[in-house]
Amino acid sequence: MAYLIIWDGRLVLPERVAEADLVVRGDTIVRIVEGKEERAALRSDPARVLGQWMEPEAARTDIESTKAAAPAGVTSSVAVRAVLAASPELSSEPQPAVLPESSESPEPQSPELSKSSESLKSPKSSAIREIEARGRFVLPGLIDIHCDAIEKEIQPRPNTLLPLEMALLEFERKLPVHGITTMYHSVSLGVGISLRGDHLLTGIIELIHRYRSRRAMVRHGVHLRYEVSHLDGLPIVERYIADRKIDYLSYMDHSPGQGQYREPGSFERYVMKNQGVDVVEVRGIVDDLLTRQKRVDWTQLRSLARLAAQQGIAVASHDDDTPQRVDQFASYGVSVSEFPINLETAHHARRSGMRVCVGAPNVVRGASHDRNLRAVDAIADGAASIICSDYYPGALLPAAFKLADEQVVPLPAAVRMVTLHPAEALGVGAVRGSIEPGKQADLIIVDCFDGYPGATHTIVDGVVVYESGMYWSAP
Fold first, then answer.
1. 385: part of which helix (H) or strand (E)?
2. DSSP percent split of the chain into helix, strand, coil, nearest 5
3. Per residue of the chain (475 residues), what is the pLDDT tens digit?
4. In the chain, count of helices (H) and strands (E)?
C-alpha cells in the first residue's frame, strides 16, 4: 500500500511512490481536510479521518510525524490514499512521510515562479470532503508550454474581436476541464500570423499579469512568440525580457519558401483564412515580410536570447527545417526546438542538447496539418520529449493516452511528456511536473470512457478547482 499527502498545497509522500513514474492507479481516495476542528480530529484519531487504508497505529505514527514537521501557519491538508496496481517497482509497505523543511517555494528559476507564486494562495474552506477515485488515474497536472488558443478566444473570427477580459476569463475556465494546471499562453508578435496590432499583444500580457496577481484557477505564464521579421516589435521583446514579464520566448520565421511554409502559396492561403484578407492585401503582406526578413539582425537576436537565458527565460526555435538551422539557434543558447519539420532535424536538435516539442493535435490525428513531420514518428524514434497542445488544449491529455494505447511508449513515459519534461524545459521542474515530496500539489484524476480519457477532478495548489460527473449512466 502506498499513499500521498498534500499539506498546505505541497506534496508529501513516500519516496517509492515517485518511482511509480508519475502514474498512480488503483483504489484511490482523495481526502481534503481543512479547518481547525477537522485538523483536531485528524490529530486525535488519524485512522477515523483517513479511513481504513492504514492500520490505526501506522496512521497515527505518520500523522504525528507530519504534524511535528509541519511549518508554522499551516492551514490545510489533503490526503490521497492509493492501493497501487501490482508493480515490481513499488514497495508494498508504507514509508514515513516527511514534510519539506519550509512551505516556501524553492529558489526561483523562472520569472513565473518569482512573479506569481505568491499570487496563487489557495482559497481555503473549513470542511472535510472525500473524493472517490477507484480505478482511475492520479497524474500530475498537465503543463502546456505552447498554446495559442487564447488568440482564437480573443478573435474567434476574422475582424471580430472580443473584450480581452472576457476572452481570458472564459478561456481559463476551459483549462481545468482538460486537466491543464499550468498554461503558458502563447501570444504572437508579428504581422500576418497573429492578432493584428501590437497593442493587443501587450494588452493580453498585461492583463494576464494583473489577473494572476489577484486570482487564478490555474497557473498562468506567458510565452512570447516573436516573428523575427517584425523589426518594429523588437523593443517590445527587449522590454518584456528586462521586466521579466515573459516566461518563455520563441523565435519564429514564417516567411514563405522555408520552414512551415516552404510549399508555394501555403503562407498566403493561411493568412487569407486567418486574417480575412483578400489576394491583393496578402500580396502586400508577403512582399513587406520578405523585405523585412532580409533586414533581420541575427547578431542582435543572439544577444537577446542570451539575455533572456540569463533572466531565467527559456528560449525556443520554431519550425527548424535543417540541421544547420538547429546549429544556428543552438549557438544562441536556445534550449527547445518546437515543431521541427523533419525527423533528421529533430534528431539533430536532440543530439545538440535541445528538447524537442511536438503538437498534441498531430499525435491524435496521426499527421501534421501541413504534411510535415508526424509527431508519433518523432516520439517513437526518441527524437521528441515534449508534447504541447499547440492550438487545441483538449488534445493534450488524449495524446498521452493514445501513445500508450497504441504502444508507442508506455503511459508513464507519455505522461512525462505533458508534465515533467515541459516543467523542466521552462525551469519549474523543481516545484511541479511530478508527484514528488515538496512539490506543488497540482494533480488531476482521470477516468476513461470507451478508452477516451477525461479529467474528473483538477487540483491546483491543493485546491479542487474543477470536478465533473454524469447525471446518468447505464447500469
1. none
2. 40, 25, 40
3. 345 566 667 766 544 444 333 445 444 445 444 444 444 444 443 333 222 223 333 433 443 443 344 333 333 333 333 322 222 232 223 232 332 333 333 344 677 765 544 444 445 554 445 666 667 888 899 999 999 999 999 999 877 899 999 999 999 999 999 999 999 999 999 865 556 678 899 999 999 999 999 999 999 999 999 999 888 899 999 999 999 999 999 999 866 666 566 666 767 777 776 666 777 777 777 777 777 778 889 999 999 999 999 999 999 999 999 999 999 999 999 999 999 999 999 999 999 999 999 999 999 999 887 778 999 999 999 999 999 999 999 999 999 999 999 999 988 899 999 999 999 999 999 999 988 778 888 999 899 999 999 999 999 988 889 999 889 888 8
4. 19, 17
Distance CA 284, CA 232 (A): 17
Q: Which residues of 150-167 are buried (b: 16+ CB within 10 A; e: fewer)?
A: bbebbbeeeeeeeebeeb
d(CA 79, CA 130): 9
| Residue whose C-alpha cell is 485546491 | 463
Full DSSP string of 64-96: HHHHHHPPTT--EEEEEEEEEPP-TTS-SS---
Q: CA 255 to CA 325: how far, in whole Å?
A: 15
